[in-house]
Amino acid sequence: MLKTRLLAAAVLMPAAIAWVWLAPLWLFALVAGLVVLGGAWEWGGLASAGGAAGRVAYAAVTGALMALSWFAVGRPALRFALLCAFLAFWLAMMLTLRVGAVGPRPGRAGTLVQGWLVLVPAFFALVVVRRGPGGPALAFTALGIVWAADAAAYFAGRAWGRHKLAPALSPGKTWEGAAGALAAAAATGALASLWSPVGIPVLVPLAAGAAVFSIVGDLAESRLKRLAGAKDSGSLIPGHGGILDRVDSITAAAPVFALGLELARRAW
Fold this sequence. Notes:
globular, 2 strands, mainly alpha
């Protein structure tokens, strides 16, 4: 499984880096939107949206919501208000995640609405970061922080993991893995100051905060899968599962990173 995961990453990573650094904004947003639509298709399946037709309808509404969010990207007051609202959602999600139990299912309608609150803000936040000053460098930094945190959590957990983080939601995750994720994220933030227009005093704490929420996003998707009785959200990516399995950490980390940049720029 590890070999398959590494091979898949070796193929996808160069394409992802080229997309972040070289694509014009419209193409960046288009690719991000397509990924989110794929995630919406999987979310609809896990939430029992009503067969293929229901999943298509759910993805279509997701696309419409992303299109609406596009109009807020260039409006500073609205953009800031939305990012604050997205942070409030993820803080509430953090409080509702129980490490000792999966908890009750919120119902199909509630689960579908929750999917929009998870997926659409991730698209919005990535576009906001990519569109702003130093956009390519900061978008790459945001994704690099999550990638580094995910990888460090996996390897630190395998090497030193002893204490389960949330056994009912994700048995493989440990507090030692989470510590590794935070350390790797902070180190990535410091390293990113070499190519980013934002310095270490902003990037390191922002990276650590984004890493914390990346774990929350991961656990939120794990709870959805447990409630649906599924091991993975899909099977699109060999060794990695579905789209949601790869972007779950980004869904929570991206809005936090984007809001942190907004606050830093206002402080400047």
